[in-house]
Hints:
This protein is an alpha/beta fold. It has helices spanning about 1-15, 20-25, 75-95, 150-160; strands at about 55, 60-65, 100-105, 110-115, 115-120, 130-135, 140-145. The N and C termini lie far apart (about 80 Å).
Amino acid sequence: MRAATFIATLGVLSCRPQQQADVATKTTRDPDSLTFADVTPTDSADSALLKPRFVSEPTVLVFWIAASDTFTAEDQSEALQELNSTTAGIAPTLARHNIKLVPTNSDTIYVALPNRQRRMILLSGVDYPFGYVLVAPGTAERILAGLYSDDELLDEVEAYFDLPSSDSTGTRPRIST
């Protein structure tokens, strides 16, 4: 059925004038402009999030790859809800420290290296088909597969990116003599 739909769509698209096809191409969103809500899988076969990500600055990638279909629909729903909640909890911290938050359904991530080289991170085969990848180009990535509590994820992000601890009050200890 999916193949028939694809072929029918391909036939319709090939009959369109080139100008209309160009306009349609220009109006599609850049994959990096997608929000975390767009990571919710609707059909794993046709998603802009399947395009491998290229990371050139400090980034937290939220991943949900195709292998998640091995979980029951109920388990997928619960995991996605927890992932959404935890991600929303760290978003302000990331924004405050200019760290990008990027969703992906792709199992491949490329990290920019000096001299126009790239390093590939492959997510297929990790313990869970969803979670986070912390990337700061020039250092080793940290893959956090599965679900994390708000505090655990915040601790991991603060430690990896060397951020000031959120539980510090910013006041110096008082020294008495």
